[in-house]
């Protein structure tokens, strides 16, 4: 039986996209924090470019993910969850979707405003959506950082909730988002 | 008499060639620095980055009727560089790049100008940056406006020829060797 919401599961594509984006976000996030602290050097310039290339890739994956989600509903949450938990889960998921689009977007806009165009993998130049403007560039850098810190907090809560489902509630919420797991067996 | 006529004719032809209508500058007056620009485009990781020098002085003498007699001299204050960001500005005045403390100015001195036709010319000259002097050729155009004359040109230098970007910056995978220099010099039209 293929994985689908009706079958109480995420589609394989939804699972793959979730983990690709999660992996990308962890990578880009750590790289962002690290590169920012480096003194100017060729390495720093390289890492900035890699960060931007990775970020734009995540942006595209996030858009695909949203399109997929819009056409493939998520499986319903387990019945035992109280109302506040459902609301919290929904709100967190919505915010995470917003952030995986807004963070790369602010990175792109920041780069334009700082006068450093983004050339994806050194090959495909993205249009500069803003003119060079130092103050705006600094503001967008702050926005980029703040959104990132907010996402870090949300992801921590998200991971905590997933673990709680698995370890405390012992439901299939984590399993149905894991690749290579046959949920029917796990869910019994 | 014959000379004056020739100059007048040449100016007329030139005015037609650049389609600027009012061109009549037989020779140019002082350079209007506030409207002029000495800029450059470097490439970092394949991304073009705009920069410029905010302080420089320039002397020109040019008569499109006798381009061969044209002369130009430009002196650039290296500490006035804007390489695109505060972090870059701090870096490039340092030892590995322009070493602005030891070499505070860079300069271009022309050695000759020749017409290329169609309102285009080419200036040859020596460019000195740091302690290195190299011959360069720069094609340029001249456009006459009502009260001024504008010269626009550009040429490409290899930064390694001048020892710009040493040490960790010496290889070209992050900052390319080729740097494009763009200049725009505006001079008062001399009637
Ligand atoms: C999901 C994707 C992304 C994540 C998770 C992410 C994360 C981060 C983080 C954590 C920082 C460090 C902030 C700080 O310490 O100030 C950072 C900085 C930065 N990011 Fe991103 N980023 C992403 C996408 C992008 C994109 C697409 C671009 C540009 C095209 C970009 C450009 C930058 C730049 C230029 C900085 C340095 C800001 C500065 O030097 O002040 N980022 N990013
Ligand atoms: C940057 C990292 C992450 C982002 C942006 C993210 C985002 C999301 C979003 C938006 C959803 C909702 C999917 C939907 O219903 O359409 C989701 C679901 C889920 N995520 Fe994440 N996630 C991240 C990391 C993680 C991690 C590290 C775990 C591991 C514990 C995890 C476990 C889950 C689980 C179990 C679900 C399914 C919830 C359910 O069945 O309703 N996520 N994630």
From TrEMBL, chain A:
InterPro entries: Cyt_b561_bac/Ni-Hgenase, Cytochrome_b561_oxidase, Di-haem_cyt_TM. Its cofactor is heme b. It is a multi-pass membrane protein. One of its GO terms (cellular component) is plasma membrane. One of its GO terms (molecular function) is heme binding. The chain crosses the membrane at residues 16-35, 47-68, 88-110. Keywords: Cell membrane, Electron transport, Heme, Iron, Membrane, Metal-binding, Transmembrane, Transmembrane helix, Transport. One of its GO terms (biological process) is respiratory electron transport chain. Residues 10-179 form the Cytochrome b561 bacterial/Ni-hydrogenase domain. Pfam families: Ni_hydr_CYTB. It is found in: Cell membrane. Belongs to the cytochrome b561 family. This is Cytochrome b. It comes from Candidatus Methylophosphatis roskildensis.
TrEMBL record, chain B:
InterPro entries: Lipid/polyisoprenoid-bd_YceI, TTHA0802/YceI-like_sf. Pfam families: YceI. This is YceI family protein. Residues 30-188 form the Lipid/polyisoprenoid-binding YceI-like domain. Residues 1-25 form the signal peptide. Keywords: Signal. It comes from Candidatus Methylophosphatis roskildensis.
């Amino acid at each position: 039986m293929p994985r689908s919401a009706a079958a109480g599961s995420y589609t394989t594509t939804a699972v793959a996209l979730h983990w690709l984006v999660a992996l990308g976000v962890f990578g880009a996030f750590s790289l962002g924090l690290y590169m920012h602290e480096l003194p100017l050097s060729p390495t720093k310039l390289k890492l900035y470019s890699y960060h931007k290339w990775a970020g734009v890739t995540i942006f595209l994956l996030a858009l695909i993910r949203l399109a997929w989600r819009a056409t493939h509903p998520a499986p319903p949450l387990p019945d035992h969850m109280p109302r506040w938990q459902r609301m919290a889960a929904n709100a967190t998921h919505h915010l995470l979707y917003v952030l995986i689009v807004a963070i790369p977007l602010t990175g792109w806009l920041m780069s334009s405003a700082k006068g450093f165009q983004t050339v994806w993998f050194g090959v495909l130049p993205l249009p500069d959506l803003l003119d060079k403007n130092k103050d705006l560039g600094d503001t967008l850098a702050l926005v980029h950082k703040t959104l990132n810190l907010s996402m870090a907090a949300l992801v921590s809560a998200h991971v905590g909730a997933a673990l709680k489902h698995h370890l405390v509630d012992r439901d299939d919420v984590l399993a149905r988002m894991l690749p290579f797991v046959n949920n029917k067996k796990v869910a019994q | 008499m014959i000379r004056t006529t020739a100059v007048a004719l040449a100016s007329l032809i030139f005015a037609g060639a650049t389609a600027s209508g009012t061109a009549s500058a037989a020779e140019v007056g002082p350079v209007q620095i506030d409207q002029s620009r000495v800029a450059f485009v470097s490439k970092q990781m394949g991304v073009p980055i705009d920069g410029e020098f905010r302080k420089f002085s320039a002397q020109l003498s040019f008569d499109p009727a006798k381009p061969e007699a044209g002369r130009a001299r430009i002196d650039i204050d290296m500490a006035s560089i804007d390489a695109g960001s505060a972090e870059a500005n701090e870096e490039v005045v340092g030892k590995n790049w322009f070493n602005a403390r030891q070499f505070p100015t860079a300069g271009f001195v022309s050695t000759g100008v020749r017409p290329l036709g169609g309102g285009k010319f080419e200036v040859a000259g020596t460019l000195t940056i740091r302690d290195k002097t190299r011959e360069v050729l720069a094609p340029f155009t001249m456009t006459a406006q009502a009260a001024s004359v504008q010269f626009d040109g550009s040429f490409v230098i290899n930064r390694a020829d001048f020892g710009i970007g040493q040490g960790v910056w010496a290889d070209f995978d992050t900052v390319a060797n080729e740097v494009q220099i763009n200049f725009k010099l505006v001079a008062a039209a001399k009637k």
